[in-house]
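Budget justification aside, the reviewers requested a transparent look at the raw inputs and outputs of the sequence design task funded under Objective 1. We therefore reproduce one unedited record. The lines immediately below are the C-alpha coordinates for a 129-residue chain.
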Protein backbone atom coordinates (compact mmCIF):
# COMPACT_ATOMS: atom_id res chain seq x y z
CA UNK A 1 0.00 0.00 0.00
CA UNK A 2 3.04 2.28 -0.08
CA UNK A 3 2.39 3.15 -3.72
CA UNK A 4 -1.10 4.65 -3.34
CA UNK A 5 -0.29 7.76 -5.47
CA UNK A 6 1.06 5.45 -8.22
CA UNK A 7 -2.07 3.34 -8.13
CA UNK A 8 -4.28 6.43 -8.20
CA UNK A 9 -2.33 7.84 -11.16
CA UNK A 10 -2.69 4.53 -13.00
CA UNK A 11 -6.42 4.45 -12.31
CA UNK A 12 -6.80 8.06 -13.43
CA UNK A 13 -4.98 7.21 -16.65
CA UNK A 14 -7.34 4.28 -17.19
CA UNK A 15 -10.33 6.53 -16.57
CA UNK A 16 -8.98 9.08 -19.04
CA UNK A 17 -8.43 6.28 -21.55
CA UNK A 18 -12.00 5.07 -21.06
CA UNK A 19 -13.36 8.57 -21.58
CA UNK A 20 -11.30 9.00 -24.76
CA UNK A 21 -12.47 5.63 -26.03
CA UNK A 22 -16.10 6.49 -25.27
CA UNK A 23 -15.82 9.84 -26.98
CA UNK A 24 -14.08 8.29 -29.98
CA UNK A 25 -16.70 5.57 -30.34
CA UNK A 26 -18.81 6.28 -33.39
CA UNK A 27 -22.06 6.65 -31.49
CA UNK A 28 -24.73 8.09 -33.69
CA UNK A 29 -26.71 10.82 -32.05
CA UNK A 30 -30.40 10.13 -31.73
CA UNK A 31 -33.12 12.73 -31.36
CA UNK A 32 -36.31 12.28 -29.39
CA UNK A 33 -38.58 12.11 -32.45
CA UNK A 34 -36.64 9.12 -33.78
CA UNK A 35 -36.82 7.17 -30.50
CA UNK A 36 -40.43 8.17 -29.85
CA UNK A 37 -41.45 6.94 -33.32
CA UNK A 38 -39.73 3.62 -32.63
CA UNK A 39 -41.39 3.24 -29.22
CA UNK A 40 -44.80 3.98 -30.74
CA UNK A 41 -44.16 1.58 -33.62
CA UNK A 42 -43.23 -1.29 -31.29
CA UNK A 43 -46.21 -0.54 -29.04
CA UNK A 44 -48.41 -0.78 -32.15
CA UNK A 45 -47.19 -4.33 -32.71
CA UNK A 46 -44.44 -3.73 -35.26
CA UNK A 47 -41.08 -5.47 -35.05
CA UNK A 48 -38.36 -3.43 -33.32
CA UNK A 49 -35.81 -1.62 -35.47
CA UNK A 50 -32.61 -3.28 -34.30
CA UNK A 51 -30.40 -0.35 -35.35
CA UNK A 52 -32.33 2.05 -33.09
CA UNK A 53 -32.36 -0.47 -30.24
CA UNK A 54 -28.58 -0.91 -30.53
CA UNK A 55 -27.98 2.86 -30.57
CA UNK A 56 -30.18 3.35 -27.50
CA UNK A 57 -28.41 0.48 -25.70
CA UNK A 58 -25.02 1.99 -26.55
CA UNK A 59 -26.10 5.32 -25.03
CA UNK A 60 -27.24 3.58 -21.85
CA UNK A 61 -24.08 1.49 -21.61
CA UNK A 62 -21.84 4.51 -22.19
CA UNK A 63 -23.52 6.52 -19.42
CA UNK A 64 -23.53 3.65 -16.94
CA UNK A 65 -19.88 2.78 -17.67
CA UNK A 66 -18.77 6.37 -17.35
CA UNK A 67 -20.60 6.98 -14.08
CA UNK A 68 -19.19 3.73 -12.65
CA UNK A 69 -15.68 4.81 -13.61
CA UNK A 70 -16.21 8.16 -11.91
CA UNK A 71 -17.49 6.42 -8.78
CA UNK A 72 -14.51 4.02 -8.74
CA UNK A 73 -12.18 7.03 -8.89
CA UNK A 74 -14.04 8.57 -5.95
CA UNK A 75 -15.19 11.37 -8.23
CA UNK A 76 -18.75 12.62 -8.35
CA UNK A 77 -20.77 10.19 -10.46
CA UNK A 78 -23.40 11.40 -12.91
CA UNK A 79 -26.09 9.36 -11.13
CA UNK A 80 -26.16 6.55 -8.56
CA UNK A 81 -28.12 3.46 -9.59
CA UNK A 82 -28.49 0.77 -6.93
CA UNK A 83 -25.74 -1.86 -7.04
CA UNK A 84 -26.66 -5.23 -8.51
CA UNK A 85 -30.11 -4.19 -9.73
CA UNK A 86 -30.45 -4.64 -13.49
CA UNK A 87 -32.19 -2.01 -15.56
CA UNK A 88 -34.66 -3.41 -18.07
CA UNK A 89 -35.61 -1.87 -21.38
CA UNK A 90 -39.19 -1.20 -20.23
CA UNK A 91 -37.86 0.78 -17.26
CA UNK A 92 -35.45 2.75 -19.45
CA UNK A 93 -38.14 3.57 -22.02
CA UNK A 94 -40.51 4.63 -19.25
CA UNK A 95 -37.84 6.86 -17.70
CA UNK A 96 -36.95 8.57 -20.99
CA UNK A 97 -40.58 8.98 -21.99
CA UNK A 98 -41.44 10.54 -18.60
CA UNK A 99 -38.46 12.90 -18.87
CA UNK A 100 -39.49 13.93 -22.40
CA UNK A 101 -43.00 14.70 -21.11
CA UNK A 102 -41.62 16.60 -18.13
CA UNK A 103 -39.41 18.74 -20.38
CA UNK A 104 -42.03 19.00 -23.14
CA UNK A 105 -39.23 17.77 -25.38
CA UNK A 106 -39.30 18.87 -28.98
CA UNK A 107 -38.43 16.48 -31.79
CA UNK A 108 -34.79 17.61 -32.00
CA UNK A 109 -33.97 17.15 -28.30
CA UNK A 110 -31.19 14.61 -28.02
CA UNK A 111 -32.01 11.28 -26.39
CA UNK A 112 -28.74 11.29 -24.45
CA UNK A 113 -29.77 14.55 -22.76
CA UNK A 114 -33.15 13.10 -21.82
CA UNK A 115 -31.53 9.88 -20.66
CA UNK A 116 -29.00 11.64 -18.43
CA UNK A 117 -31.69 13.82 -16.86
CA UNK A 118 -33.89 10.73 -16.38
CA UNK A 119 -31.04 8.81 -14.70
CA UNK A 120 -30.30 11.76 -12.41
CA UNK A 121 -33.97 12.05 -11.42
CA UNK A 122 -34.44 8.30 -10.90
CA UNK A 123 -31.09 7.59 -9.23
CA UNK A 124 -29.90 10.74 -7.46
CA UNK A 125 -26.65 10.64 -5.54
CA UNK A 126 -26.73 11.44 -1.86
CA UNK A 127 -24.69 14.34 -0.61
CA UNK A 128 -22.94 12.02 1.84
CA UNK A 129 -20.97 10.25 -0.91
Amino acid sequence: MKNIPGIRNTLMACLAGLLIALLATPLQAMNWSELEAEINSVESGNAPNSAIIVRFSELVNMMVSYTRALHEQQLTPLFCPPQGVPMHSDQLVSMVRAEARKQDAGPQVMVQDLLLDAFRAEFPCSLAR
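Residues 28-122 form one domain. The mean pLDDT is 83. Computational costs for records of this kind are itemized in the attached budget.
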